[in-house]
Amino acid sequence: LCRGGLAERLCRLQNRERSAISFWRHQCISDDKIPSDKSGVLIVKILEIFEECTIQVAICQQLEQSPATLSPEDAVVSAEEPILKVLFTKETAAHLKSRPQDVIHIYPPWQKLLLQNADVPVIMNTYFSQKVLLSEHSEARQKTYGLTNMLIRKNIISLAQTFRLDDLDDKLHQESSDNQVPCAPQTHNNSDSKQHPLALSAVNDSLLELVESQGAVGWREVQVLVVIQRVYCLPAREGYRSHTPGNKPLLSNGGMFCRLCLLVQDAYGMFSEVQLQSLSSTDDIEQYCRRWEGKSCCLAGMKILQRATRGRALGLFTLIDSLWPPVVPVKVPGQSQDSEMMTTNLPPPSFCYILTVQSGEIHVEVDEEEQISNLYQPPAVHGLKEILRMDGCNKRCSFWAQVLYRRLQTKHSVPVDQREMLFVTDSTLQNVVCGIPKVVAVSVTASCVLSVEIIEALSAGSQLVFFKDALWGNGRIICVERTVLLLQKPLLCSAAGADLSELTGPVRLDELDSTTQASSVCALRGTVVGVNESTAFSWPTCNRCGNGKLELCPQDRELLYCNQCSEVVTTPVLKMQLEVFLSCPSRSQSTVKVKVCHEISVALFVLLTMLLFLQTYEVQSVLGKEVGLLNCYVYSVTSHPNCVALEEIVLL
Questions:
Q1: Entry's InterPro entries (predicted)?
Q2: The CATH number of 6-26+38-65+81-131 is which of 1.10.150, 3.30.1400, 2.40.50, 2.30.110?
């Protein structure tokens, strides 16, 4: 806040006001009596209560004196005494817990507002208020209302009604029993145990209207009906577990705790991200996607964590843009809902509320038995060939691909959060003659949460993986936050005419040529023209766990021992590495250096001349040898000197 500005002065004034109210209430509680000074005190008796725009409005009748000095018969007010409309803030109403027939003392500085064309004066600034009851009345009221909850009528008024944007036919104030909500949590009998605890509260269909009427602090009494468009996980902030004690994280992404999130949309097209907190770590994100996406759900007990805009949450809005415009006409505030609404001309949302639950309990009620909502937009699945030809930047895309190779980038030029690389292909790339690579790289950022099932599956071998809502831009595919990797294709997805047939034959890589770039994979053939003897070495590894640090067995110095397995290694696997220089017709002007890595059994070691020449053969015996198609990873391409450095790889 600017020093000395209006905002800073207002903030100080509000802080002083809150302090004064808290001090006054504390003093009343400590003294356990009504303040003795009665000058300027307004005494009213509540006749009716309703709520409007988070303000509690009480229709009251003014009393000349406190009922404490009257008999119960005299406390009944006559119709001749003036009627007042008293306004209580949300905090004051929660403190008073008023009901009809309650008597309230309102202490200065209250103010009376006289409105034009209105006979009932309005009483404001009622912060210093206290409820007063006769002792016998208190006992009777406690018996009468102790086990019941009074319903307070809520007049939900939208901005469209405030600024007269509605049709003239529409009624300005719609008051019905559907808008009545309990002022306290509902209590249920055993016979109603099957009924959801939120079933008796009011249901709204507008996220924005609910935020306007309930405020940013949160709402408990009402709920909003939305459609779940996407289910995904986000990495939790540091300290996330500390302020939610007892809550178990859903997944662990490399030691980073994650939370389940929902991207929901209401009947007006408004989006909101709901961040859930208390889910068991054994729950599977893939199961939640299958069970919840496309279903309607009711949200309650939410509070606003952040109001996100495009400039502050670009990743969130790229996902929202992929779901815009809506597939069915949506409601438009301020217009009649009877007419057919066009969805193509609606501007995309410019902000989105990020919601979270107010406590450890989940306040999301999903009807899994219900049919898929018409508002739901399943992911549009494209072939990789079509994605590579897409125009624009920062567009979400979904595809079904075979993961061939997984690599962790270690170069300093690669951003730290994009070190994981997956090389994938599909039938649309394998069938291409030229012009488009047969294998593309997909970067996986640290913010993209990979489930334990995905990590284990990729470690085991090549897998068909469904990439949902990946980001395409600047010629790259990146898995960012809100991207989901699944082993099974969703039940509902839009193929849009793409060729999604599975691979039938062997996978082919692009051969090394002048267009090959660094951080890609290719196939290589050529003639050996040199060997770097100084970098060649070999080492034995455990055939069970792959441990490369074997020791001599203490009992038998001729055997090897593995500390990780705590067993003798009788058949170690020998790993060898050397660098060879090749002459390749496709890169005749370049020096092609290949790091050849082999993993062989010791029993077969003597059969591989290529790997034994350093010990029993001369280097000249391998020069001029033809090298067949090797699968390689290109880790550098330089022009000065003109050199291509590759490393032999084994595809999954």
A1: DNA_repair-scaffolding, DUF4502, DUF4503
A2: 2.40.50
pTM equals: 0.65
Q: Closest by alpha carbon to 296, among 218, 195, 203, 359?
A: 203
Q: For residue 388, which amino acid is it? A: L
Return the bridge partners of 106, or none: 42, 129
Classify domain 384-486 by CATH architecture.
Beta Barrel (2.40)
Helix (H/G/I), strand (E/B), else coil: 484: strand
- Both structure tokens of 146: 């102790």
* Token pair of 103 as six digits: 């008597």
CATH topology of domain 202-235+258-328+348-377: OB fold (Dihydrolipoamide Acetyltransferase, E2P) (2.40.50)
Other Cβ atoms within 10 Å of 218 Cβ, number: 17
User: Could you give the C-alpha distances from 340 to 265, 329, 335, in angstroms and in order?
Assistant: 20, 7, 11
Q: How far apart are CA 399 and CA 54, in angstroms?
A: 46
Q: Which residues contact 229 (CB under 8 A, 6 or more apart)?
A: 263, 264, 265, 271, 293, 294, 323, 376, 377
- Strands 103-106 and 129-132, how do they pair? antiparallel
Q: Which CATH superfamily is domain 520-648 in?
A: Nucleic acid-binding proteins (2.40.50.140)
